[in-house]
Write a structure and sequence with these properties.
The complex is a heterodimer of chains A (about 400) and B (about 220). Chain A contains 24 helices and four strands. With about 400 residues, chain A is of the alpha+beta class. Chain A has three domains: about 70 residues; about 180 residues, no CATH class; about 55 residues, no CATH class. Chain B is of the alpha/beta class. The chains are: A alpha+beta (about 400), B alpha/beta (about 220).
Chain lengths: ~400, ~220
């Protein structure tokens, strides 16, 4: 059964074993003979591979009678497309592992966030399923903003977006995948009876402003395509044309930069729509926290500019102006230089080192693990396991609260 | 009090035995005291793939299992020790306890303590921080919890290891970057042993019975 799932997912047994921290020979044995998997390992495998725990208990004889369509989890149908490489799938395994760990951590710290469930359900039941996709996206964004803190101000929400999504219970991951075509994707993580949405943005060669839109676009997919297994967006795919992408894009735009936000920002900066130049556009981007293209598109949709001006405005090079206006426009190196931070403190503390593929963990997740450790709710070795680093590295990064304590 | 039939061993202490490449102290427990060092399936799994050493110890582990120096605490073996365990204990209750412990400590420690608590056996584990976290979360831990150096001191006292061998063991651990308990960090084995609060003692069958350990740090007295 395990072998069939791995085959269907396009995952190599040995790579998968190393990603999950198991001896590859033992893992190969389990793949051929799942009844040798220790009971304590089944929840992890179930959550990572998205296979119900009961399937691991099925005898090889009984498994022979099951069709692939009865066994293969929905998510792996999506991740075996031709645009994807094995390394993409391995990152998915890693992210799903983090999702499993987050569920475990929340059980221990009794801080389970499941607000996304009622909010997403409320959106799905309220939005007119027969309306045009962009109207569905806008209606969903309106409910999303009204039901949450996003609707409380008329300014950009990029600074609070990630913390806010995390408070809802969404796992937000931004990590550089240099060799991947994936720009963003969303899927559900956690065991099959305790799922949570995950929004991923590839941070390789993308700006913070663009990633805000990618993340909300992926949240849009997670709301509407919750039965699809996963939604994938590739870099260079161009403008959205199919209904699913149009809806997610409309959701992202209306959630991040609704008319009142754009109006308020333009008014407070004294911007004249008829005379938009590089500086004015950079001000709009800096204050709304979304990329130039989305600002221009929103301005056209809300009637602040004529639709024909979009191409010209998108061609304006605002990079220099934006750099002067917002630290978010700085590259990581520029940001570290400016603020006197060290890369090891800023990014190094979030990188996994034990997995064959390294991933940058979300700040909120790292903080939750470190807090649990400092509150003595988990051991340092367990905290290190959650951060996919070894124990010595954990204490090097975050200190040893037991240093002067006789254990 | 009779000697416990099992000593449930965790990965961190066994790694140190594999590093020094000397399992005689564990062997002495079996041959002289009828105490069988055992490992849970989770510790077996950990030892076959360690973050730092990868699969380096698999041949040594297999050899130790083959020669009976270590045994695997699988379901059948576990059930053979239920006679002395608290009423209601079962493989299922042990697994459920392991799941609870695994929420706060690593897999090896979790199932080592869960097995030891379920069967009322001592454990061998160097991870005192895990013990503190488990106790802080109101979870029972093994009584007592022996450490690698408890076994080495015991082996020295019972003649299984010479002073020179113990010194070499201390040095080998240091060279391999393994953490040493405070008393041994800047002292020879002999001097360190004087201040190390050893939790394993060899008793005498003719002497008055030793007090039964009640806490993880209480000494266990075993009789040849």
């Amino acid at each position: 059964m395990l072998q069939r799932v791995l085959n269907s997912a396009g995952l190599d047994v040995r790579s998968c074993a190393e990603l999950l921290g198991f001896n590859p020979d033992i893992f190969a044995l389990w793949a051929a003979n799942p009844n040798q998997i220790p009971e304590s390992v089944v929840p992890l495998l179930s959550a990572v591979l998205s296979v119900p725990q009961a399937l691991f208990a099925i005898s090889p004889k009984a498994a022979k009678h099951l069709k692939d369509s009865d066994v293969i989890p929905q998510i792996w149908y999506k991740f075996r497309g031709e645009n994807l490489q094995e390394s993409d799938r391995e990152y998915v395994v890693l992210i799903r592992q983090i999702g499993h760990y987050l569920n475990e951590l929340e059980e221990v710290t009794r801080q389970k966030s499941v607000q996304w469930k009622s909010l997403f359900e409320s959106i799905r039941t309220t939005v007119d399923i027969q309306a045009p996709p962009t109207e569905q996206g806008k209606a969903a964004a309106s409910i999303f903003r009204q039901s949450t803190a996003l609707g409380h101000g008329a300014s950009g929400s990029g600074d609070v977006l990630r913390g806010f999504l995390r408070a809802l219970g969404v796992l937000v991951v931004e990590s550089p995948l240099a060799d991947s075509r994936i720009e963003g994707c969303s899927f559900y993580v956690g065991s099959t009876n305790s799922p949570r949405p995950c929004a991923f943005a590839n941070s390789h060669h993308t700006t913070w402003f663009r990633r805000n839109a990618i993340l909300m676009h992926e949240v849009g997919h997670a709301i509407f395509e919750h039965l699809a297994g996963a939604s994938l967006d590739f870099s260079g795919a161009g403008d959205a044309h199919d209904s699913i992408e149009l809806r997610a894009q409309a959701f992202a735009q209306a959630a991040l930069i609704p008319k009142e936000v754009l109006f308020h920002v333009a008014q407070s900066r004294g911007i004249k729509w008829a005379a938009l130049n590089e500086y004015a556009l950079a001000q709009l981007v800096a204050d709304t926290h979304v990329e130039q293209k989305l600002v221009v598109s929103a301005a056209a949709d809300y009637g602040f500019i004529e639709a024909e001006r979009q191409d010209d405005l998108n061609r304006l090079d605002i990079h220099a102006e934006l750099l002067a206006l917002s630290d978010h426009a700085l590259s990581t190196e520029q940001f570290l230089d400016k603020n006197g931070e060290h890369a090891s403190d800023w990014i190094g503390k979030r990188a996994t080192t034990l997995s064959a593929k390294s991933i940058r963990l979300p700040i909120g997740y790292v903080n939750a693990v470190v807090d649990a450790y400092k509150n003595r709710q988990i051991s340092p070795a367990k905290a290190a396991e959650y951060l996919i680093i070894d124990e010595q590295e954990f204490t090097d990064r975050f200190g040893d609260i037991y240093e002067n304590v006789e254990c | 009090m009779p000697n416990p039939p099992l000593l449930v061993c965790d990965s961190d202490a066994l790694v140190q035995f594999f590093l020094i490449d000397d399992l005689r102290p564990l062997q002495a427990l079996t041959t002289t005291f009828d105490i069988q060092p055992t490992i849970t399936l989770e510790v077996d799994l950990e030892l076959r793939w360690l973050a730092k050493y990868k699969s380096r110890f698999v041949p040594k582990l297999d050899k130790a299992l083959k020669h009976g120096i270590l045994t695997k605490l699988d379901q059948n073996t576990f059930q053979g020790y239920l006679g002395a365990a608290a009423a209601g204990t079962s493989w299922g209750s042990f697994q459920a306890l392991g799941v609870r412990y695994y929420g706060v400590v690593q897999r090896g420690e979790a199932y080592t303590h869960a097995a030891a608590v379920s069967l009322g056996m001592p454990a061998l584990s160097n991870d005192g921080k895990a013990v503190r976290v488990l106790e802080g979360q109101m979870m029972s831990v093994a009584v007592p919890v022996l450490r690698f150096f408890d076994i080495i001191i015991f082996a020295h006292e019972s003649g299984a290891l010479t002073t020179k061998e113990c010194e070499e063991i201390r040095s080998a651990l240091f060279t391999n970057g393994e953490g040493l308990p405070g008393p041994f960090q800047n002292a020879s084995f002999i001097n360190g042993a004087k201040t190390f609060p050893c939790r394993l003692r060899v008793g005498n069958s003719t002497a008055a019975p030793s007090p039964e350990p009640m806490n993880h740090y209480d000494p266990l007295t075993i009789i040849p």
